[in-house]
Design a protein that fits this description.
The complex is a heterodimer of chains A (82) and B (379).
Chain A: H1 5-25, H2 42-53, H3 64-71, E1 74-75
Helix pairs in contact in A: 1-2
Chain B: E1 14-19, H1 28-43, E2 49-52, E3 60-65, E4 81-85, E5 96-99, H2 113-125, H3 153-163, H4 185-192, E6 200-204, E7 207-212, E8 215-219, E9 226-230, H5 231-234, E10 244-248, E11 253-258, E12 261-266, E13 269-270, E14 276-277, E15 292-296, E16 301-306, E17 309-314, E18 319-320, E19 326-327, H6 328-331, E20 341-345, E21 348-353, E22 356-361, E23 367-372
Parallel strand pairs in B: 1-2, 1-3, 3-5
Antiparallel strand pairs in B: 4-5, 6-7, 7-8, 8-9, 10-11, 11-12, 12-13, 12-14, 15-16, 16-17, 17-18, 17-19, 20-21, 21-22, 22-23
Classes of the chains: A mainly alpha (82), B alpha+beta (379).
């Protein structure tokens, strides 16, 4: 069956988020992850980092507001430095 | 604010820039004017000067391009990434690239070239992104009227950290060099004044905003301390001195009221079609303004406080409920008078009256505690 629209939407949002986090929050580019508890899910960690930067509620969830901020027009320079 | 790693900056104060090509969206003269004005934003607050050259000895090269354009950061079509620039240095260092797939404008329609260029030139001079919404170096595009554009204190502190204050007296600053808002002792004392009252209070994307005259104090769970901003630095086209404000967080919408008008906003963006007249909500004609408003997540109702009465607005049916207005003192016992401001947090209402506030259980409507209005500022 075609996947339910909301699942499709969730997949779209997750794809958008991964691209955004790779581009602006170094997702997947850190050679040696900073010494901290082994991350169970780097994407969740990066979502938290992005939510904190933008003053959103830090949940690690890809919620409506977080996706909204990721869609906003912006500068192409990353928000965090390697 | 932040600078790039190792804080690269230009050794010379007299910088040269070259416009390599032009966007077809604007007359060349408009592009040149926007870029010149964008540099002036920074020269007004530093000793730096910027001269346009046509030769190859430019420090900062400005170009418009689409998609892949010879560096590692391809553009992505209309929207999303608008432009990027490189920190000070040789070769590509300092250069600014603008995505030609965007529509570049000289007015409020997206995207205003002056505003984006001023941000990118901040990078060209050594500033990285700022977390402070309302600052020029905040990564997300926010339209502000270029005619009286003013850098935030955060931007000024950042660039002067690299280059110091201006030595030349800027003749006619296209931007005011006086920082928008020096947090003077008075203003700090102001927030700890035991007699402090508020005009309006609302939540906004996890923050709590306390409005007073032209200012708003912002309390965020993610940042320590309280930030004080001018309302005009967040919403340049809105008036100050709001009467009431409330958030419907599931819709990421905040409603701001002043006199018989109200606006809907999402973050910095004012929703189209506003301001509207408050009587479109269903108030009777004698209501001239709202004193306070608060949205109840449980009942999906918004309560509007007017003098000694309150109204209940059904956010689902988008209509005022029958049987209202009712006396505040009847339904919210011990709150026997007017309400200046109100917001909801963690299942409680907070009603402000004068220098006091009432913590009220949203379900039982019983007053739990009475506190000073500014208890939130950890004075």
């Amino acid at each position: 069956f075609p996947i339910a629209p909301e699942t499709e939407k969730e997949n779209e949002d997750l794809l958008l988020a991964k691209k955004y986090l790779q581009k602006f929050f170094n997702l997947g580019k850190e050679e040696r992850p900073a010494f901290k508890r082994k991350s169970l899910n780097p994407v969740t960690d990066k979502i938290r980092e992005m939510q904190a930067f933008y003053g959103l509620e830090v949940t690690g969830d890809l919620n409506f507001k977080t996706v909204e901020v990721m869609k906003q027009p912006r500068c192409g320079i990353p928000d965090v430095r390697q | 604010y932040s600078t790039f790693p190792m804080s690269p900056k230009w050794k010379t104060q007299n910088l040269k820039y070259r416009i390599e090509n032009y966007t077809p969206d604007l007359a060349p003269a408009d592009t040149e004017a926007a870029i010149e004005k964008a540099f002036k934003v920074w020269s007004n607050v530093t000793p730096l000067t910027f001269t346009r050259v046509n030769g190859t000895d430019a420090d900062i090269r400005i170009s418009f391009a689409s998609g892949y354009h010879g560096d590692f950061y391809s553009f992505d079509g209309p929207g999303r990434t608008l432009a990027h620039a490189y920190p000070p240095g040789y070769g590509i260092g300092g250069d600014a690239h603008f995505d030609e797939d965007e529509t570049w404008t000289k007015d409020s329609s997206s995207y205003n070239l002056f505003l984006v260029a001023a941000h990118e030139f901040g990078h060209s001079l050594g500033l990285d992104h700022s977390k402070i919404p309302g600052s020029l170096m905040y990564p997300v595009y926010v339209y502000r009227d270029p005619r009286d554009y003013r850098l935030s204190q955060d931007d000024i502190s950042g660039i002067q950290n690299l280059y110091g204050p201006p030595t030349h007296s800027s003749t006619e600053p296209s931007v005011s060099t006086t920082p928008i808002e020096q947090t003077t002792e008075t203003s700090t004392t102001g927030m700890c004044d035991p007699h402090l009252t508020f005009d309006a209070v609302t939540t906004l994307r996890g923050e709590t905003l306390f409005f007073k005259d032209r200012y708003v104090w912002r309390k965020s769970p993610h940042f320590p301390g309280i930030e004080r901003d001018l309302v005009s630095s967040l919403w340049p086209t809105l008036p100050s001195g709001f009467d009431a404000a409330y958030e419907i967080d599931k819709k990421d919408q905040v409603f701001l009221f002043k006199g018989n008008q109200y606006w809907a906003i999402k973050g910095y963006d004012i929703q189209p079609g506003f301001p509207k007249n408050i009587h479109t909500l269903g108030f009777s004609k004698h209501v001239k303004k709202i004193d306070a408003a608060v949205y109840d997540h449980n009942t999906k109702r918004t309560y509007f406080f007017v003098d000694y009465q309150y109204w209940s607005y059904n956010e689902i049916t988008q209509s005022m409920e029958k049987g209202y207005p009712r006396k505040i003192s009847v339904d919210f016992r011990r709150v026997g008078h007017k309400v200046d401001a109100a917001f909801q947090e963690n299942g409680y209402f907070y009603f402000f009256h004068g220098a006091n506030q009432y913590e009220i259980d949203t379900k039982t409507r019983k007053v739990i505690r009475i506190m000073k209005s500014n208890v939130w500022f950890n004075c």
